[in-house]
């Protein structure tokens, strides 16, 4: 029964309002149980860090995600390992063999020049949907706001489907300080001149998720979400938690004019 007025949520094969989970080794049987109940509130699944390369039953896991209409891809660390060892063609072949249609191009560990990343994106988008990542995994590296905006814009213009803002699974780098606090000035500047429907903000904790929901709206794209947290996150998006309790039915933030998908 639907009798409450809740914030309007995107649904189905949505293009924004995404929940992107990080899978750091969920056993296949447990994953099946979780997806049976919660697949409708999961859009993207990242096989975290470089773990895909050593994951047992990887093909079955990829097939399971796809069976539930969830888009799987490998974490950017695996891409960077392949870049470091000059194995990008082999990596792309590996993804095609697995039936993975999405690829992340990142430089969280390595310092890959922007031109090289754009060249790789140009190659990758012939066969894959591309997600680029901006920001470093080094919590002590403070990237200027202008550089964040410039890279995000360049990646979107290059044809990336989405751009991820680095936050790590710990929430202590990139868009966060080493103490875990959101760099709110950075976020406010990013959403001013860029389409936040094309950005995925890594938000591994409820504290981070609630910040973005209250700042940008219930249909903000959130990444690095733990599998065990997807239902609580959906409740937060729907104003069913104290910290998001007063979200309006049509949130008057950055996403309220966006058409539903």
TrEMBL record:
Protein's organism: Mesobacillus campisalis
PANTHER family xrefs: PROTEIN HEAT-STRESS-ASSOCIATED 32 (PTHR48413:SF1), PTHR48413
Gene3D superfamilies in UniProt: Aldolase class I
The name this protein goes by in its record: DNA mismatch repair protein MutT
Family per record: Belongs to the phosphosulfolactate synthase family.
Lineage top rank: taxon: Bacteria
